[in-house]
Amino acid sequence: MQYWLFKSEPNTWSWEQQLARGAAGEEWDGVRNYQARNNMRQMKLGDLGFFYHSLKQKAIVGIVEVCAEAHPDSTTDDARWECVDVRAVRSLPEPVTLEMCKQDPRLAEMVLVNNSRLSVQPVRPAEWQVVCALAGMS
To answer: Which among 2, 8, 75, 87 is least buried, having the fewest CB atoms inside 10 angstroms?
Structure first.
């Protein structure tokens, strides 16, 4: 299993909207960055990801699961762009802010800390565990 982080602006697609999609999940569409697209191409069914609210909140608020591997993005006719589908697994007991991640030395190498603009990014297993602990899940 691999771990990921998916960033979304709450006014575009919020955690509450993701939760409302239930087991059907939702296409993680609209990504127009090659590195983020390539990350999605590496994803497998069952991989887990953090759901991150960008802009004002700047916090990890939930966990999603990849429920469909990379396929053409339905929001464009351009064959270069693909996406995965994700479904909500659970809300975090406590949001984990970007500032909390930056202040924790165990997360110094985390992509979110060093390249917070990348919309879909990998998360190392040790980083996953630290964030889950910060969220009150351990």
So the answer is: 75
- The topology (CATH level 3) of 3-134 is ph1033 like fold (3.10.590)
Q: What is the per-residue pLDDT across 93-112, written as a single tens digit (0 to 9) for each?
A: 999 999 999 999 999 999 99
* pLDDT tens digits along 32-70: 999 999 999 999 999 999 999 998 899 999 999 999 999
The structure's pTM equals 0.96
From the list 37, 44, 35, the residue with the least C-alpha distance to 2 is 44
How far is it, in rounded angstroms, from Cα 99 to Cα 95? 11
Query: What is the reported pLDDT for 138?
Result: 65
Query: Is 6 exposed, middle or buried (CB count within 10 Å of its CB: 0-12, 13-18, 19+)?
Result: buried
Contact 59, 1 (CB under 8 A): no
- What is the predicted pLDDT for the residue at 116? 77
Distances (CA, A) of 45 to 9, 14, 68, 115, 130: 24, 22, 6, 25, 23
**CA–CA gap between residue 41 and residue 51 (Å, rounded):** 18
